[in-house]
Every structure is written in C-alpha cells, then in structure tokens.
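Researcher: I'm preparing a figure for a lab meeting and need a structural model of a single chain. I don't have an experimental structure, so a prediction will have to do for now. The sequence is pasted below. Please return the structure as tokens so I can convert it later.
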Amino acid sequence: MRATEFLQSQTQADWSAATTHAFTNALVDGSLDADKMIGYLQQDYLFIEDFVRLLASAIAHAPSLADAVPAAQFLGVITGPENTYFLRSFEALEAKTDAPAAQETTAFLNLMRKARASGRYEIMLSVLVVAEWVYLDWAQPFEDRAEGLPFWFGEWITLHCGPGFEGVVSYLRGQLDQCWEGLSDAAKQDVVDTFTAAVACERDFFDAAWAGFEVAT
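Model: Understood. Here is the structure written out token by token.
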C-alpha cells in the first residue's frame, strides 16, 4: 500500500463525508443557493494567500529542481486561472471579494501556517496533498456536467479535474510517498496527525458551507 493510500485509510469517515458532500452535490447539479456559493467563495478565497505561501515554501524545500518544477508550475495556476476565476465569479455574482474569516476557515489557515512554519517538507506535503486530492475526488466524477452550468459552478469543477489537475495530485502524492520511506516513526506520526487534521478541516469547511457562511456585503 502506498503511504498516501495508508494515510487516506486512516481518515475514511471524514474523507468520504468531504468528497460526497451535500454541498458539492448541489453545486454539480446547479441547485446550490447563490448566497451559499457566495459565502463559500468568499471564505475559500481567504485561503489563496496562505496556500500560495505554503506551496512556495514546499518548492523551496523540495529535494531537487526536478522535484520542485511541477509545484512551481502549479503555483502559476493558483495565482493565474484560479485567482481569476474567483474575481470573475465575485463580479458576476455581485459579491465582495473579502469577508471576515469564519471559524472553520481560521482552523484551516492555522494548519497551513503551522505546516509552513515547521520547515518540514513532509508536513507541508501532508496539507497540500489533502487540499488537492479531496477536491479531485469530489470533482472528477462530475467533469462532464460542468459545461451546462453557470461558470461559477462549472469552472470550479473543471479547475479540479482533468489530466492537468490529476497530474498535480499524482505529483504531490508521489512526493509524499517518497518522503515517507525515510521518516522516523515519530516523524511518520506527525504526518498522520497533520494529514488527519487537514481532512477534518475539509469536512468541517464543507459542513459550514452547506449550513451557509454569512455573506459579506
């Protein structure tokens, strides 16, 4: 069993809840309430800066240039097409681009900051793998539905599936699998704890989004 498969298996209840969620099910069938989508996007946009910093730190800690290049390329997607998607969506939905961080958002931001401050490549990867793999897992089955949806739904699906994004997730998982083999038992437990916390944060965030974040006006 791959290390990342083992890690996923340790979080099965939260993983399944996050990747087969009522929120994403409503998003992919186009029935999600506009205010719920706005609240979700406002909170999710708060992750961009810290995610970019975490990914950049992981690039800096990669063991070689070859290991760093795919992450550097992905950084361009986050700061380019994904950032633009948010701005276009806010404009189309007539929503503000900023909002106070909800409790669930703050928990995930703190986890990303803790991972970055650790200076440990495997801990940074533990958060990055969860953040991207969870999204691939929920979005991938619905790639063919994106075209008929408003772009703020459809493009959120296509940003998180397809060969390009599958390649990102495969790369991140491969990096974590590679790191795992050389870790001490204590370091492996740190990875398990971080991975588990990240999956719980994903589930909590979707739960809160489904309940409805307060929309900043």
